[in-house]
């Protein structure tokens, strides 16, 4: 099914077509008609399936077909998203869709100055794309009112809650119109997401294009068992021997990210890092160089797990497994997007085998293991058995030593008794 079959306004269809869209993805086919009819929607779809167009296009169509002047410091639609990267990406997409339309779109997120954002918000906007924390700051500052909004979208709702935005989101919801149409998009549905949906929605329609918490079929997934201390060595060897290009690597901490970046560069692999302590300019520059092919590897903490749309990303490497099994789904969703294929590689040490089992339980199948000669790692179960044997041997040896000491002590005492008795007899 193509976009022309959905009878979008000509100016909107022209922008969408020039952006390169031809056929609708499954989530777009299912979500757009339901949103058009005015229903609240709970949508489950993996990253890279066209979610932005699924909620943005029907909203844009309604704004075009029912135009109204926006008052100062007011807006018609709000899209909440967890990260500045995702906010910027959504803004880029919507600006492309509306290239031939006169709609005002304002993006607000942290890491940049408040005042320029405040000036734009006070003028009023058709659509605001924001991270929860920064939008709440503007609400408290009186720069924007949400009392009259018609549409509210929570994109990557699970991630926003995971990042601790629950309180901010609830405060924002309290400031919105009760008559709004609400849309919640999420790749996973845990208890907190369901509770949020129950609070937000009025008789919502459920839209899903696959099992919850599953990975895209376009992504091949493999595991490399390896000792933690040898992960960097293995990563360099695989990149070099297999000539991997466009590799997004996830590391556990900012310190590990910087250290790995330094070591890969010393190995002759062009690499940069992005994490929360990097300023927005540095992060944008690293992403641009990576997208343009000037960097072979981009190393990141969890900050890049959502929202980054990197064209033709070939490989995602979990240098360290994520703390939450659900985050595995989001990480590897950076590749295999828009119908293209990708590869997800996970380095797993003995200490991470329990986390790997949680991931496999979540996605519903066992991941293929690849053993690299020279990097073999013994299994956790085998080590536990060996440890139990050592402990058992140690206890037995300790018992033997105790028995031996007891026998020696008894012999010694017996010898003393004999000597004492002999001395007594001599005196008599």
From TrEMBL:
Keywords on record: ATP-binding, Helicase, Hydrolase, Nucleotide-binding
Q: Per its UniProt record, what SMART domains does this chain match?
A: DEXDc (SM00487), HELICc (SM00490)
* Nucleotide-binding as UniProt keyword: yes
**Residue window of motif Q motif:** 1-29
Q: Where is the Helicase C-terminal domain?
A: 218-383
- Which Gene3D superfamilies does the UniProt record give? P-loop containing nucleotide triphosphate hydrolases
Q: Which GO terms describe its cellular component?
A: cytosol
Q: Would you say which domain of life the source belongs to?
A: Bacteria
Which named protein is this? Answer: DEAD/DEAH box helicase
> Which organism is the protein's source?
Parashewanella curva
Q: Source taxonomy lineage?
A: Bacteria, Pseudomonadati, Pseudomonadota, Gammaproteobacteria, Alteromonadales
């Amino acid at each position: 099914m193509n976009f022309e079959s959905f009878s979008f306004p000509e100016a909107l269809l022209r922008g969408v077509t020039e952006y390169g869209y031809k056929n609708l993805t499954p989530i777009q086919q299912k979500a757009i008609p339901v949103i058009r009819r005015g229903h609240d929607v709970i949508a489950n779809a993996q990253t890279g399936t066209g979610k932005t167009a699924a909620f943005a296009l029907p909203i844009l169509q309604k704004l075009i077909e029912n135009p109204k002047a926006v008052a100062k410091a007011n807006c018609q639609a709000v899209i909440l998203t967890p990260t500045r990267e995702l906010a910027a990406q959504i803004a880029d997409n919507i600006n492309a869709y509306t290239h031939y339309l006169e709609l005002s779109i304002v993006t607000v997120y942290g890491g940049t100055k408040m005042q320029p954002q405040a000036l734009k918000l006070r003028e009023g906007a058709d659509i605001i794309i924001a991270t929860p924390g920064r939008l709440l700051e503007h609400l408290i500052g009186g720069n924007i009112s949400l009392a009259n909004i018609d549409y509210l979208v929570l994109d990557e709702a699970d991630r926003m809650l995971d990042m601790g935005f629950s309180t901010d989101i609830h405060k924002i919801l309290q400031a919105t119109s009760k008559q709004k149409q609400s849309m919640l998009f999420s790749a996973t549905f845990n208890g907190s997401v369901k509770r949020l949906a129950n609070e937000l929605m009025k008789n919502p329609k459920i839209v899903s294009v696959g099992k919850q918490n599953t990975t895209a079929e376009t992504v091949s997934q493999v595991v490399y068992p390896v000792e933690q201390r040898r992960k960097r060595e293995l990563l360099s060897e695989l990149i070099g021997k297999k000539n991997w290009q466009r590799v997004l690597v996830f590391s556990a901490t900012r310190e590990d990210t910087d250290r790995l970046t330094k070591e890969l560069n010393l190995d002759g692999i062009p690499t940069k890092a992005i994490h929360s302590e990097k300023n927005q300019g540095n992060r944008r520059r690293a992403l641009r160089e990576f997208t343009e092919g000037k960097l072979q590897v981009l190393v990141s903490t969890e900050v890049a797990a959502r929202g980054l749309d990197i064209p033709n990303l070939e490989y995602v490497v979990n240098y360290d497994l994520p703390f939450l099994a659900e985050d595995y789904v989001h990480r590897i969703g950076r590749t295999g997007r828009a119908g293209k294929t990708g590869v997800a590689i996970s380095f797993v040490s003995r200490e991470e085998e329990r986390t790997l089992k949680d991931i496999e339980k979540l996605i519903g199948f066992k991941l293929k293991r690849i053993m690299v000669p020279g990097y073999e790692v013994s299994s956790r179960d085998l080590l536990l058995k060996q440890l139990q044997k050592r402990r058992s041997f140690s206890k037995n040896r300790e018992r033997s030593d105790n028995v031996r000491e007891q026998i020696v002590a008894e012999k010694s005492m017996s010898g003393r008794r004999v000597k004492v008795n002999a001395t007594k007899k001599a005196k008599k």
